[in-house]
Amino acid sequence: MSISFDLTTHAARDALGATARASLAPKPSLIGLTRAGMGEALAGIGVPQRQIKMRVAQLWHWLYVRGVADFADMLNISKDMRALLERHFSIGRPEIVDEQISNDGTRKWLFRFPARGAGRPVEIETVYIPEEGRGTLCVSSQVGCTLTCSFCHTGTQKLVRNLTAEEILAQLMAARDRLGDFPDKNTPDGAIVPAEGRKVTNVVMMGMGEPLYNFEEVKKALLIASDGDGLSLSKRRITLSTSGVVPEIYRTGEEIGVMLAISLHAVRDDLRDMLVPINKKYPLAELIKACRAYPGLSNARRITFEYVMLKDVNDSLDDAKELVRLLRGIPAKINLIPFNPWPGTNYQCSDWEQIERFADYVNNAGYASPIRTPRGRDILAACGQLKSESERMRKTDRLALEAMMIAGHGEE
Ligand code: SF4
């Protein structure tokens, strides 16, 4: 899917908080560690073993329930302990290079993460899409992508690196900071933002990259995001979107348990080999078998299949019929995504009437098949347009790849 924005830079950009502007410090971060990992990190700086469990619980609450980004705000931790933590660890947020707000309320942040090892700093975009009764945050898992789906602009960019669990979570936490989705730091202890009052109600791993090629870090981040004593997002409200890395689909079901979305886009192997080349390694029969085996499926827990509508490529009624046949018996929803052209692509978006005919067929066969209307298409129109516009605006300041929302990984 593609998301479009008003490119007017938010006037509040200059008023970003000092914490938000500060880069992640080179000190290791406590964000993104499992409880066990955090315990080990604390033991490593001399926190007595008998205190570890209690300290981990305290830190978990401050970091993930209250969203503090400064040890000084952890009021029930002694000054000496706070100073010790401060000396060794970071809990800061990524630098917010840019924040844009579209006319329809969609927000986009350009985050900069510091260099890791010998690499360079990287920038990625995270998008917040408010809708009636819900708000969805679209999160990236890699900078660039190793796969080369032919309709996807991200696929034309080399992989720079995987994001760490910290960086995946940082997108969520920084977005919640900016949206006022963490309790005010003066809120009395225990008074947390109730689930129904949240701005970010859903998370989709559908930004840049193939999340299942970064399985361990994505798993860590999503288990922390869904931890009931922390960020507390229901696993039913987290969707991981994959192009079809079959072995890791099984692992996702067993080890993470979030909702699944598949970038399907074609119903015949010859065509899918071309559109989503990972199909050569894991063909449709294997992919669909893994989907059928995904644990916990029901009409209330459906797999989302993303299907980008490409004129005269995959949009015939025969394709629609084959789609229905292929998915028979799988609790499924099919998101039809009008293709957003980008510079250099040979594909065109299907005609609107054809998209509707396709949708009607699938719908009449009993599958929900919403047509995704790109937001603010007049301004962003395509991933490529967003990228070139950003490059034009910030020519002298390009560091690595700019992330963009892609046509391939779709939201629930
Ligand atoms: S659709 Fe997803 S997996 Fe395919 S190239 Fe684009 S980002 Fe990579």
UniProtKB/TrEMBL annotation:
Reaction catalyzed: adenosine(2503) in 23S rRNA + 2 reduced [2Fe-2S]-[ferredoxin] + 2 S-adenosyl-L-methionine = 2-methyladenosine(2503) in 23S rRNA + 5'-deoxyadenosine + L-methionine + 2 oxidized [2Fe-2S]-[ferredoxin] + S-adenosyl-L-homocysteine; adenosine(37) in tRNA + 2 reduced [2Fe-2S]-[ferredoxin] + 2 S-adenosyl-L-methionine = 2-methyladenosine(37) in tRNA + 5'-deoxyadenosine + L-methionine + 2 oxidized [2Fe-2S]-[ferredoxin] + S-adenosyl-L-homocysteine
Chain positions recorded as [4Fe-4S] cluster binding sites: C145, C149, C152
GO molecular function terms attached to this record: 4 iron, 4 sulfur cluster binding; metal ion binding; rRNA (adenine(2503)-C2-)-methyltransferase activity; rRNA binding; tRNA (adenine(37)-C2)-methyltransferase activity; tRNA binding
E.C. designation(s): 2.1.1.192
Radical SAM core domain boundaries: 131-380
Keywords: 4Fe-4S, Cytoplasm, Disulfide bond, Iron, Iron-sulfur, Metal-binding, Methyltransferase, rRNA processing, S-adenosyl-L-methionine, Transferase, tRNA processing
First-tier enzyme category under EC: transferase
Keyword Cytoplasm assigned: yes
Cellular compartments per GO CC: cytoplasm
Superkingdom of source: Bacteria
Binding site for S-adenosyl-L-methionine: G209, E210, S241, S263, L264, H265, N340
Compartments, as annotated in UniProt: Cytoplasm
Cofactors demanded by this protein: [4Fe-4S] cluster
Gene3D superfamilies assigned: 1.10.150.530, Aldolase class I
HAMAP family: RNA_methyltr_RlmN
Name of the protein: Dual-specificity RNA methyltransferase RlmN
Annotated organism of origin: Phyllobacterium phragmitis
